[in-house]
Each structure stands twice: as C-alpha cells, then as structure tokens.
Amino acid sequence: MTDMTLTSSIEQPATQATPEVNFDFSAHRLVLKGEAYPENAAAFFRPLLQAIENWLQDKPTTDEPVRLHVALSYFNSSSTKLLFELFECLNGFAKGGIACELHWYYDEEDDISEEFGQELRIDFPSLAVFLIPDLDAC
Questions:
Q1: pLDDT per residue over 116-127, tens digit each?
Q2: Which range of residues forms the domain containing residue 80?
C-alpha cells in the first residue's frame, strides 16, 4: 500500500491549448482548469488518467473523498472523450467504495456547460456531482 504522503503531485501550467493541472494526491484534490483542445488529447489526458488509476488502486482506506475540480471554459470533442474516460474511472472506483466527487465549474451564462454538468450526474451516478456557476471559484 502506498503512503499518501509519498505520492507525487502533478503540476502542469496551462498552455494555450491545455488546462492547468494540479493533482495534489495527498490532499485528495485534483484540478483541471482552463481550456482543453490539445492537438492530441490522448497524449495529454492518458498519463493523467493512468496516474489517477495507479493512485486509487493503492489508496489506503479513508473517509476523505477524492475531489476532482474541473473548470474548463472550453473543451473540444476529443477532450470530451478523454474527460469521460476520467469520469468513468472515478465512477468505477466510487462503485467500489471510494468516495469520489466531481466539482463542475461553469460560467453562469453558459447554458450548454451547465447542461453538460447536469448530464454528468446521469451518466456517472456513483459520483457526487456538484455544479458551481463560477469558473473562477475553482
């Protein structure tokens, strides 16, 4: 079993086409913030997904939930596919007894992003999905 204090965090600054990544595994706080339209979405997201899977497989039992905070002002269709893989991963671990939360931040004037967040509640029923109408609150 991995000691949570020894699990490396992942920090990547935002670029024009990729979001800021701040995965603080010891605090159970994972953040994606900015815009996501990388030329190769799989190359960007799959290593992050693998890191989360590896961490959750070795995660000691605790009452503290895993909290994924997503504040994306724009994301393209290929990023959507990979985000769904990430959400499905967390949903699977939630089904297995690890509490997982998805905090979905959106611009309060963006009805499409709000509806997307509402659909996440349906698509990933084991995740606790929180909708926050303020992209800057993340």
A1: 999 999 999 999
A2: 4-137
* CATH number of the domain enclosing 118: 3.30.750
Phi, psi of 10 (to 5 degrees): -120, 120
CA distance 17 to 100: 27
Order of all β-strands in the sheet with 100-105:
10-12, 20-24, 29-36, 66-75, 100-105, 128-132
Each residue's pLDDT tens digit, 67-123: 999 999 999 999 999 999 999 999 999 999 899 999 999 999 999 999 999 999 999
Q: How many domains does the chain have?
A: 1
**Cβ atoms 49, 65 nearer than 8 A:** no
Say what the pTM is: 0.92
Q: Which ranges in 26-138 belong to alpha helices (H)?
A: 41-58, 77-95, 111-123
Q: Hey, how many other C-beta atoms are within 10 angstroms of the C-beta on 40? A: 9
